[in-house]
Design a protein that fits this description.
With 542 residues, this protein is of the alpha+beta class. The longest helix has 38 residues.
């Protein structure tokens, strides 16, 4: 009884396995059929797939089976990257595995990664342009891509800086003794006392002036021929003794000796330094005191060196200070001091400010707003659109049909969220403000040439040479040629190897015996590299 029961159970299990396997195969067949129908053709046979391939307008809409069938056809027709597919009329860019899209191949073949054929990518198709990326409107909306137009305008900006007030040294006056004398009285007793223009500062007694004045007065009492010349000589000796013209005129007018001299303030301001006291002896040339004018003051602000180039002497400045609330002081940039602070990387801008009421004094903190001269009209884009990679600046340009292409630009000044563009864009183009790196990731997955961080290939500066040649042998990317003498290199006629250019730049079906005209350049440590070549018609037989 147990054996019979076991036999029945095993039979039932086998039946279930058979039914399940059949259902699984049926489901897979239906799924593949559905996929093929969604792609626009049935992939059940190569013939139908090829027919669909030949009738499809855009290869980017092909299904994977259609792409594989196209690759098989390329193998049969000996097509490769750089050739024009007669079925589509488009140039073949490369071949790739859809499961590993970052790897590109120049020839049709089986994928080295998967058990499937590679798929061709064509130039000019919506999803296969090597210089742009195509994003559908639905995906653009999901990613939140925003664009803005390139406009024309000029940036009106101002440079802000914080500085300290200092005395204007060009309004400083130093008073010194003109002769040996004694300070009998001081009208100012301490430094920083304010004085008005013409106010008395000190009384000095000068003994040396007594003899010169008495000599002049004695000659002034004489009359007769020659006395005028003697009086002029006496006046000259009083000037040499250090007497001022006003003091000499006082002696002449009064006819009396005036040995005392009153020192007066030549300008209004403050006594910044007082070097003598009452009773002190003053020697000739000795500094007595210094006066500082307060009509204008200096304010020296630290300006970043990147903005200092935007300023020019004479630029208008508006200044405020916590020490004078509610008051604005007008002035202009006097000069940019020729010195850069190595720590803060700033340059001091010296500003001359009007100070009619004397509110600004040295040491005060001021905030300065320096007007930048009107800039020339240029192209402007939002600053969010510009990506600085370290070596270059790039923007992502939005084109028709949902295409996006990175463009290298020359960026200038950035003010208020706008950046100047001096090269790389045209007015009316649209640039991407957000999602640039998502588009760049798509370009990376598809192995496109256009990348945000991809550095442009440097322009070759090697000297190039041209010669005729005949192909002796081909081996991979190297060709053995026989060429005539090349005088520029002092080469005789000889046979040697050259490196071929990319396949897209080669004529089709090169073979031994073909006559060529080549342009090449030398390479350090390697064979010469051909930069361009073309097949030459064989010489006619005689």
């Amino acid at each position: 009884m147990n054996k019979r029961t076991s036999f029945i159970a095993l039979a039932a299990l086998a039946a279930l396995v058979a039914v399940g396997g059949g259902a699984w195969r049926l489901g897979m067949q239906q799924g593949m059929g559905t996929t093929s129908q969604a792609g626009g053709s049935s992939a059940s046979t190569p013939t139908s797939a090829s027919a669909s391939t030949s009738t499809s307008d855009d290869p980017s809409l092909w299904t994977i089976p259609q792409g594989e069938d196209a690759t098989r056809r390329h193998i049969r027709e000996s097509l490769k990257a750089g050739d024009v597919d007669p079925a589509t009329g488009r140039r073949i860019l490369n071949y790739h595995d859809p499961m590993v899209p970052g790897k590109n191949f120049d020839a049709p073949a089986k994928s080295p990664f998967m058990d499937m054929m590679l798929v061709p990518r064509y130039a000019g198709s919506d999803a296969a342009d090597a210089s742009s990326v195509t994003v559908s409107p639905r995906i653009q909306q999901n990613l939140g891509l925003r664009t803005a137009p390139v406009v024309e305008g000029s940036l009106v900006s101002e440079v802000t800086a914080v500085g300290n007030v200092a005395w204007n040294e060009r309004e400083r006056v130093e008073l010194s003794s003109r002769a040996m004398g004694f300070v009998e009285k001081l009208h100012v007793k301490a430094a920083l006392d304010r004085v008005a223009a013409g106010a008395p500062l000190a009384e000095l007694y000068v003994p040396d002036w007594v003899a010169a004045q008495e000599e002049y007065l004695a000659l002034a009492r004489l009359s007769g021929d020659g006395t005028d010349a003697l009086q002029d000589a006496a006046r000259q000796r009083m000037r040499q003794a250090g007497m001022t013209p006003a003091h000499i005129q006082r002696v002449v007018a009064s006819g009396a000796v005036h040995p005392r001299f009153t020192l007066t303030a030549p300008i209004a301001g403050i006594v910044s330094e007082l070097m003598v006291r009452e009773g002190a002896t003053a020697m000739p040339g000795m500094a007595l005191m210094r006066l500082q004018g307060t009509r204008t003051v200096w304010a020296e602000g630290a300006v970043p060196e990147s903005q200092a180039a935007l300023l020019q002497p004479g630029a208008r400045v508006r200044t405020t200070s916590p020490g004078a609330p509610g008051q604005t002081f007008e002035g202009q940039v006097q000069t940019l001091l020729p010195e850069v602070d190595a720590v803060t990387r700033t340059i001091r801008a010296r500003v001359e400010l009007a100070n009619p009421q004397g509110r600004l004094v040295p040491g005060m903190l001021v905030s300065m707003r320096l007007d930048r001269p009107q800039a020339a009209t240029t192209l402007l884009v939002p600053s969010d659109a510009v990506i600085h990679t370290g070596r270059r600046s790039v923007v992502m340009v939005a084109e028709d049909g949902g295409r996006f292409r990175p463009v290298e630009v020359t960026a200038g000044l950035e003010v208020g969220g706008q950046t100047e563009i001096s090269a790389g864009l045209q007015m009316g183009q649209r640039v991407v403000l957000s999602g640039q790196f998502l588009i760049d990731s798509e370009a990376s997955l598809r192995g496109l040439e256009a990348r945000l961080n991809q550095e442009p290939a440097p322009a070759s500066t090697q000297q190039r040479y041209t010669t005729d040649a005949v192909i002796d042998a081909l081996s991979g990317d190297t060709v053995t040629l026989t060429h005539p003498p090349i005088p520029a290199l002092k080469w005789p006629q000889m046979q040697m190897d050259f490196k071929l250019p990319p396949r897209a730049q080669q004529p089709r079906d090169l073979e031994a015996g073909d006559r060529l005209q080549i342009e090449f350049e030398m390479q350090d440590g390697d064979v010469p590299r051909i930069t361009s070549l073309q097949r030459v018609a064989p010489e006619p037989r005689r």
